[in-house]
Amino acid sequence: MQRNTQMTKIVEARCCVLIVVVLILLRVQIVPCISANMRLLQVNIQSLNTSLQCLRYAMQSLQIDIAALQEIWHPADESIHIKDYGAPIMKMRTGREGGGVAIYTKNCVKKVHLKHYDVNGLEAVWADVMVDKCRFVVGSVYIVPGDITALNLLDSTIEQILREHSRMIIAMDSNSRHVLWDDSCIGLPRHIRSLQMGTKLEAIIQKHGLVVHNDGRATYRQGNVATAPDVTLSVGLMESGPVRWSVIDDELRTPHDGILVSVDEKPEVKVEVIDWPKFDWNKYAVETEQVLCELCEDWDKQDLLQCDSETLVLELAAGLEQCVQRTATLRTITKHSRPWISGDIANKLKNLRRLKRKWRLRRSPANGSVYKRAVEEVYEEIKQAEKEYWLSECHKLTKMKDQDKWKAIQKLTNHHTVHGVQPLRVHHNGKDTFLFEDCEIRNELENVYIRKTTNHITAEWRTEELLQTVEEMKKRAVKNEGNHLMNADISDGEVEATFGTGSDTAGPDGISAKLIDKADRTMMLKCLGLLWNQLWSNGKFVSEWKKRR
User: Rounded to whole angstroms, how far apart are CA atoms 162 and 236?
Assistant: First the structure.
């Protein structure tokens, strides 16, 4: 619980002997970033500046881990940031407008930009990524129409990557057509340039044993033209689980459809949570009075010194959780919370997806006109709603406490300080490599900063000082000094002094300080007194309290 800090302070204040801090290599629990699956979005965005609003909504609603974009068209610096995603890895076209590729990854995804695979003449960017326990190279590639030379460069780059990596996924706008991925080119004359490029790309696929995930559907629609220049290729990806390829209905303000590639099952987007703003704390206090009274009576019947500390803590946490469930009401939220998306706007977005499907099936001028007009109206309304929401949040700053203002400012400025553990670069046998597994990163850091002591004089001095301090502690123990203070019970006053001082953020056991503070004060005071004195007498500290989120 959050009370571990207060209890530690009480113990330190009452100790009259010198406490020596000994460095012990403890296995710190590292909570890995676990995603329900790997979900990659591929799209030729045709200007990140104009499509960012739509892209943000699609990426967060679809719970995208990685986004591979083509034709980002020299975006402005303020147009590249997406909440919960790190800074993109980009490669811009030089000397002329248009083009450009980028890769976005979620904050919890481990990534390394593989710059040594960048080649002049090929618009492609590569990254070594790890989602959950699935590690692979992802590439975002754009091939200019008719550029056979770029396909040759892609061939040699793929060959180089596969020498060093066994898994790879390539999201590309190839501007190439072939019956392997485009049903619309069946029966067309072979002299067409895009079909010749498709033949070249098909040879590359066969050479490297790549898997084509497209199912033949068109991914590009402009006027009466419907083709599939966007291709998704992979090697070794299917070893991670079932791979699904689909075209999404979300509007991205580009003639190219977004492509969703997922491994494993679709994650739950809607979840039920406790509606804390409507939580009845008075009812909770009444509930805890009876539950904690029964718990204290049960503890009084036992010899607490012989009881397991972990069991006592679990019993207290379970009792509080039981009271919360009896009191709380639930509400359904989405993991991609967008507060300015009202129910009315959400219904309009659903209707927009319906109009898009209708236009795909029948590409009449009337359907196209209705669809395009709806796109402009809906996204203008979203833009205005978002602007009004952020303005209202700014106005709230004047009424906030100073400690709450920083949280609000970070939210307003899209500033994030929490990121997943990122890969660690190590130099081994004259070559730089990257460690992705948490256990490998931890072992390397321990080897460098703990086990390998570079200053032998300092190490010897610390050892000598430690031995001397231990001897002094032994002499004091023999003289029986300070035992009456060391062994005294923690008083009710010391326990009561900790109420109202903890954090409202729940600890690893799910119990926040507010749940303790708002419980029946008399019974909670008795429970904590019994529990803390049991821990103090046995000289133990609950393992659950040692865990770090």
Answer: 10
The pairing of strands 168-173 and 134-142 is: parallel
- The pLDDT assigned to 229 comes to 92
Note whether 139 and 169 are within 8 A (CB): yes
Q: How does residue 478 score in pLDDT terms, banded at 50, 70 and 90?
A: low
pLDDT digits (tens, 9 = 90+) for 318-371: 899 999 988 988 877 665 566 777 778 878 888 888 888 887 777 777 887 888
**Secondary structure (DSSP) of 427-444:** EETTEEEEE-SHHHHHHH
AA identity, residue 69: L
C-alpha 357/C-alpha 351 separation (Å) is: 10
Is there a contact between 312 and 264 (Cβ–Cβ < 8 Å)? no
Which pLDDT tens digit goes with each residue over 496-547? 888 877 767 777 677 888 888 889 989 998 888 888 888 887 777 666 665 5
- Reported as a single tens digit per residue, the pLDDT across 22-76 is 222 223 333 333 334 789 999 999 988 888 888 988 898 888 999 999 999 888 8
Write down the number of H helices and E strands in the chain: 16, 18
Task: Please give the distance of CA 50 from its chain centroid, rounded to a whole number.
Answer: 26
Q: How far is the C-alpha of 408 from the C-alpha of 386, rounded, in Å?
A: 16
How many CB atoms lie under 10 A from the CB of residue 32? 13
Per-residue model confidence (pLDDT) at position 74? 85
Q: Which two tokens stand for residue 284?
A: 């909770």
Which residues are bridge partners to 67 per DSSP?
41, 104
For residues 502 and 518, give the distance between their C-alpha atoms in angstroms, rounded to a whole number. Answer: 12
Coil/strand/helix, residue 522: helix
CB atoms inside a 10 Å sphere around CB 319:
20
CA 127 – CA 111 distance, rounded (Å): 6
Amino acid sitting at position 412: L
Separation between Cα atoms, residue 312 and residue 317, nearest integer Å: 9
Q: Any bridge partners for residue 172, and if so which?
A: 141, 231
Long-range CB pairs of 160-167 (<8 Å, 24+ gap) are: 160/117, 161/114, 161/117, 161/126, 161/137, 162/208, 162/235, 165/128, 165/136, 165/137, 166/235, 166/236, 167/134, 167/135, 167/136, 167/137, 167/234, 167/235, 167/236, 167/237, 167/239, 167/240
pTM above 0.90, yes or no: no
